[in-house]
Amino acid sequence: MTAPIAAGVDCDLHPAVPHLTSLLPYMNDYWRDQVTTRGMTDLISQSYPVNSPISARPDWRPAQGKPGSSLEDMKRQALDPYRVSFGICNPLYGVQMVFSEDMADAFCRALNDWLVKEWLDKDERLRGSIVIPVQSIEKSVAEIERCAKDKRFVQVLMLVMGDMPLGKRHYWPIYAAAEKLGLPIGVHAGSNYHNPPTSVGWGSYHIEDYVAQAQAFQTQLTSLIVEGVFARHPNLKMVMLESGFTWLPAYLWRLHKFWRGVRMETPWVDRAPLEIVRSNIRFSLQPVDAPPDPTTLNRLLDHMQSDELLLFSTDYPHWQFDGDKVLPDGISPDLVRKIMIDNPFATYGRLKQPAIKETTP
Amino acid sequence: MNIQFRDRPEQAPAASVKTAIADCDIHPARATPTELGPYLAKRWHEHLQTYGKHAYQGMMEGPPYPKAQPNASRRDAYPPEGGPQGSSLSFMQKQHLDPNNVALGVLNPLATGQGIRNQDLAGAICSAINDWQIEKWTARDSRLKGSVVVANEDGVAAAAEIRKRAGDRNFVQVLLLSRNVEPLGQRRYWPIYEAAQEIGLPVGVHAFGFGGNPITASGWPSYYIEEMVGHSQCQQTALASIVLEGVFERYPKLKMVMIEAGFGWAPSLAWRLDKNFERLHSEVPQLKRKPSEYIRDHIWWTTQPMEDPERRDHLFELIEWIGWDKLLFATDYPHWDYDEPSRVLPAGVSDTNREAFYLGNAKKLYGIA
Questions:
Q1: Which residues of B touch A226 (CB under 8 A)?
Q2: Chain A residues inside the 8 Å CB shell of B309
Q3: Least reliable range by pLDDT among A226-240, B7-21, B337-351
Q4: Where are the domains of chain B?
């Protein structure tokens, strides 16, 4: 087993909102009334059915309530055993599925404020991602600016499957705001289900949706690269969260080949795709979609041609590994240090800053 | 890949010196729009004149994403007698089959009835294309073999067309495209697999097609390059569907070929499927084995556009994870992203693997002596 080292950063933790009603204290009167009068149901995404085996490791499943809904459990099961200095909270509450931008905005504000009060205020290791009402670009930018005043927010969070490919110019004001405020964009697995969850339509099974997350990340990377997001925003970092990474080398070989063939179509792409990935894109460690033998994995890591791409993650409470095997077998101590400490700190600039609130959001 | 016109030196016939190859992805074209005339009923000609193809995409003419070159084809592949690239047998022989010593060429017609919403029209065009393949191509050059194209959204009619071609050695596979109304494992397509298994033909799944779904899980992208690179993602999800729906449990003798969508993604997809199957098998009890085992036993891959890593050891490792016995060489003639036979495999491959890659695997799969 490869042992984790102390003082790392867990870049993908999922605190769960117990229920939509848990956010009521963080909503205004109008939205409190809407939620209760209309009998709105909990926003659980099909991407993560609560009882699905992959939604929580069996030994991390609480006796009652949603997996990931207890801070005490998170401390005992993830923060303490891996002795991390920071853990980044990426709430996967289904606010992106909402169709009304006003409702989405109210729910995102409530969610972000809930994260501060119920999690960040209660454990000084925790950091947060700003969940945005991507249904409205203006409201998303406003929410980023509102939350960014609290330096414990270290990233903006989006889902990998949405209404439009993420490279589209429509989204660029979000990227401009994030770049200006030193916030990476975290792109997490999951869909708002406004489009079929695969590029060839609706499959029958939950496992199909989950496997298809990796292909969604691939098409999003293509979109982000060829639309020129990183030519316009060279300092913007994007982190692919729960994306898998073993598909990356072959994906880049293909993209590179086509880019060489038809680069006249997107002349603003000023660097080769592999260079853009090396400088601007990172990937969370879990899930490791590879066979358990160290030889194959080490060959794959060699195919990636960089030791700066991976960021340590447990994906707590999702079931990606058993026991303490959060790091794959057979990787070198140098790479462990890179993955656990150097790469996350280089990616999340705000981790180096003292976590002082400028104003109360 | 060539994007600029290059004045290629005329290649002398060299069949006697070059090693024979199979080209498992050749695209034959019609010289004129009326070339299907003799094979299509008058009713359908009139229908096409009046209403057009009425496909699962909005453009009456041409593709939604403009290609990199006219007809997505090499500029040096226009036949001297006129017509689009790939429309002349004699020029195909002169430019490609003879100089590259193609011993087996598999035809994959693309502009067929697939992706048309009216299934009666789709079936009529597909049947006409199948007759046309025989008369214009395979009957005139025994190296060429056809693919049975079918009205893909009407499984029953498609199965009838497949059975109609049973035992006809002009055809070596049934052809589908990757993008359909539903993922290819869905039951509406099972009659196609049943008929293909029954008459002993592999099912090829070529990149492209229109089924009305946005071509990414986040909607429509902007550029042709996104469509091209994205074929590998479409193919991955189509294959995941085929495996997870239990198609290979139901049709254990069925063989499938993934055409023109790359193969580099195969190992990672198989590992991801296996890992999640371990935890989620209760959802898909129709699977009796690990997803990767079905892939290993039932799937072949054409090579073009060949993955092109900087380091050849990376390519060799990739191929070893897939199996040297599973790759089928293809050029994609006459398309612009054509792979030149002499340049795709770096040095350092054993003679056995080289022969399997270029010819042996294809002959075995397609039953060519």
A1: 222-223, 225-226
A2: 249, 253, 303
A3: B7-21
A4: 21-366
**Single-letter amino acid, residue B175:** L
Q: Determine the pLDDT at residue A95.
A: 97
How does pLDDT run across B245-254, given as a tens digit for each residue? Answer: 999 999 999 9
Q: Which of B68, B283, B317 sits opposite A261 (nearest CB)?
A: B68
Residues in chain A within 8 Å Cβ distance of B220: 164-165
Quick one: pLDDT band at residue B4, thresholds 50, 70, 90? Answer: low
CB contact under 8 A, B219 and A319: no
Distances in Å between the Cα of B59 and the Cα atoms of A65, B46, B53 are 51, 20, 10
Verify whether the Cβ–Cβ distance B237 to A163 is below 8 Å: no
Q: Are B196 and B203 in contact (CB under 8 A)?
A: yes
Nearest residue in chain B measured CA to CA from A215: B233
Alpha helices by DSSP H, chain A: 29-37, 71-74, 101-118, 137-148, 172-180, 206-226, 229-232, 248-262, 273-280, 294-304, 333-337, 343-347
CB-based contact B240 A208, cutoff 8 Å: yes
Instruction: Give this prediction's pTM.
Output: 0.96
Residues of B in contact with A261 (CB under 8 A): 1, 3, 68, 336-337
For the CA atoms of A100, A101, A102, A107, the dihedral, rounded to the nearest 10 degrees, stands at 90
* B326 or B3, higher pLDDT: B326
* Closest-CA distance of chain B to residue A135, Å: 13
pLDDT tens for A77-119 read 999 999 999 999 999 999 999 999 999 999 999 999 999 999 9
Strand, coil or helix: A282: strand
Reported ipTM: 0.96
Give me the numbers of helices (H) and strands (E) for chain A, helices first please. Answer: 12, 8
CATH of B21-366, one of 2.40.10.270, 3.20.20.140, 3.40.190.10, 3.20.10.10: 3.20.20.140
